[in-house]
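Practice problem: predict the structure.
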Amino acid sequence: MSEYKALKGIKIKTFATDLGEGSEGQVFFSTASQFQGLKTVVGSAAWSAGGSLITGRKYLAGCGTQTAGLAFGGAITAVSALTEEYNGTGFVNGGNLNTARRYISGCGTQTAGLAVGGGVPPSATLSDLTEEYDGSSWTESGDLNTARKALAAAGIQTSAVAFGGRVGGTTLSAATEEYGGTSWTAGNAMSSARKYLAGAGTQTAALAFGGMPATAATEEYDGSSWTTGGVLNTARGYLAGSGIQTAALAFGGYNNKNNTEQYNGTSWTATSTMATGRESLAGSGTNIASIAFGGQVTAATGITEEFNISTSTITGSAWASGGNMNTARYYMQGAGAAPQTAALGAGGYGPGSTNQAVVEEYNGSSWSEVNNLPRGMGRLFGAGTQTAAIYGGGYAGGENNYVEVFEYDGTNWAEGGDLGTARGMGINFGTQTAALFGGGANFGPDPTVEAEVEEYNGTAWTEVNNIPNATLSNASFGTQTAGVVTQGKISPNGSWPGTNTNVTFEYDGTNWTSAAAGLVTGPSGEGVGTQTAGGTCGNTGGIYQRYDGTTWITDARTASNGGSRGTSGTAAAALTFAGFDDPNILVATEEFTVETTAVNLKTLTDS
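Answer:
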């Protein structure tokens, strides 16, 4: 029998630990797992979940890389001017386009992007507009010679090429134009006119593929003329692409395709499929590290997926179904300091806005009913853990605003010190012996929005500095000396009901200071985690926004679009439960798991 060294020219080495990234193909023996035999590191292609767009939309454009991507334009129901920037984890808001457009195309980088053509309101009128992005704002530049939408583009901001599209009625275009950083000049036309196609590459080495009517055709541009390339395995339009002429990626497409194909300069090869098939999406990156975002499934979506060919297995951040609650309700409260596997949900509203006294405990897989609250409490405050919680305030209709507070020891409820101001639906974070309740609303014949803040020491409440603006229906998280409040409604003069907001305030135990605006505007969310590693979930629309103490960024969306949900856990292991998704009152629970990466090891056998 030949030895491995004689066959391959190298010895099998022994290591104290398994090899990692960058060791693809090397056969080794690990003393850490010596009874598992010889191993090697292998590469594989896969899509994994990425952070959701802040605003889901279709007919948008993208450019940049997987870790520095740009999404702009498109449509929700109305045409959009929104721009969002991706950092490899999630999206943040960028500067709006000067002119809202859908069926738009783009190329370049996150800090030097180009937006080309599209359709503008009121009826998707053809656009010849070009705008340049500098990393913060868009500036209008030289117009296309031929106004069109549903086109494709490739290249960089100072050296781009645009091709194909629709030029009015049912007329399709094969026209090519080149951009030198200021103006467009005509180039030689493609062999076939088409719309809703995808592009990749540079001005002198571009790739055009797919399009409508559904085609598999690929053409290659050398800076002067187009020649026929290898055909896609799946004919389609409304797709997206990334990469360069000799190493491109095609993904998604008409009728909710999830197909992904790689191009090597000659032919297309099918590879790993997307988890969510969709059309009218956008993307950016390379053929081995791309991002796909937005598009349409049955409606506009914010779903984001990342494609990688890597020796690591990447499991994207995701929400998974947990055990259902026993009682459907909304405007309930979790115990914010409780972990994902030991949560507490109490109070809330049932059908007909009836106050609930039901309390349930979660063990990481199922909910169990325990002793009820002493009274029904909707829109209440809550804080603490499963074995040391505090709940109080709330509302029961009419003029019934409560000041009563109750403490839970894991079995029984006992009355604690009353709040100084009767109210509900406000700020709540901390523990049973160091809680903070504040803001909220005092409901009655003349409702008001409150700014008062109170701290609890385990016995009594003390009024402290007001939050700068009266607020209600906000999301909050943290501790009594390091808290965060964001979104909801804000009312500088305390008048009801206030206006939707995404303002954020931080609390240091004494003072409130303004912080970066959140990505979610309006009510219906709650918070998890700490001031430097927190977030809000259970938001209407399903957005999960995370906060690192400085910046907000999106992560994976919840399956439910419902709001007014209870929350618990940490930013990396959050829990959201129950809530309201019009017209349904929910019992569903969802568990969040943060992205993980593991080296893709294979144990070698003789079979």
